[in-house]
Specification:
The complex is a heterodimer of chains A (115) and B (114). Helices cover 0% and strands 51% of the residues of chain A. Chain A contains no helices and 12 strands. In chain A, the strands form 3 sheets. In chain A, strands 2, 5, 6, 10, 11 and 12 form a 6-stranded mixed beta sheet that branches. A 4-stranded antiparallel beta sheet of chain A has the order 3-9-8-7, with no helix packed on it. In chain A, strands 1-4 form a two-stranded antiparallel ribbon. Chain A is globular, with a radius of gyration of 14 Å. With 114 residues, chain B is mainly β. In chain B, the strands form 2 sheets. In chain B, strands 2, 4, 5, 6, 9, 10 and 11 form a 7-stranded mixed beta sheet that branches. Classes of the chains: A mainly beta (115), B mainly beta (114).
């Protein structure tokens, strides 16, 4: 079974600075999908960024980018120019290419933005 | 296009009561899932469905039932509520059509069992 580990329960960053959230995973599959979800206080789960394992190029969405290291099974999220609205819980998630669309989540990192 | 909707948003139950959490999606997605979120544990899959009439168990299915009679609806039933079922419940849907694989989440239901 796949597992996802987020080793940083809490992180903080000054507004306008850059922060990196860590995620590692364990799988025996060679093809899969990885996601970062943001959960603000409203509780809504919002997709931030996704990465297909067969793509070597790291995904980027505006101020959000990932560092995907397939051999190391690492999938970190970098947030540049942090804004107050980035304050939230961030979850890393894994999805197999087969079967039931199940997402396996990490335990989350709470990100605080310091004005 | 409302996406994924869930009702109610909040619910308090007494131990032993039963209730149904409603979930509906208007995107014609074939896949629907229920997750629960507990502090420090991320989201865990309860039950899922790959199409109308087809359901299966996820990681933490005990105490919950589901059915899927239509593509749009996927209700989650608590048969006899227990304090251990106090949690936030999320419904999600997705499709593999057109290469899609993103799961869309509803706004969640916070359930407290006393």
């Amino acid at each position: 079974a796949q597992t996802v580990t987020q080793s940083q329960p809490e992180m903080s960053v000054q507004e306008a600075e850059t922060v990196t959230l860590s995620c590692t995973y364990d799988t025996s599959e060679s093809d899969y999908y990885l996601f970062w979800y943001k959960q603000p206080p409203s509780r809504q789960m919002i997709l931030v960024i996704r990465q297909e394992a067969y793509k070597q190029q790291n995904a980027t969405e505006n101020r959000f980018s990932v560092n995907f290291q397939k051999a190391a099974k690492s999938f970190s999220l970098k947030i540049s120019d942090s804004q107050l609205g980035d304050a939230a819980m961030y979850f890393c998630a894994y999805r197999s290419p087969f079967g039931n669309e199940k997402l396996t989540f990490g335990t989350g990192t709470r990100l605080t933005i310091i004005p | 296009n409302a996406g994924v909707t869930q009702t109610p948003k909040f619910q308090v139950l007494k131990t032993g009561q039963s209730m149904t959490l409603q979930c509906a999606q208007d995107m014609n997605h074939e896949y629907m899932s229920w997750y629960r979120q507990d502090p420090g544990m991320g989201l865990r899959l309860i039950h899922y469905s790959v199409g109308a009439g087809i359901t299966d168990q996820g990681e933490v299915p005990n105490g919950y039932n589901v059915s899927r009679s239509t593509t749009e609806d996927f209700p989650l039933r608590l048969l006899s509520a227990a304090p251990s079922q106090t949690s936030v419940y999320f419904c999600a849907s997705s499709t593999r059509d057109r290469g899609g694989y993103e799961q869309y989440f509803g706004p969640g239901t916070r359930l407290t069992v006393t």
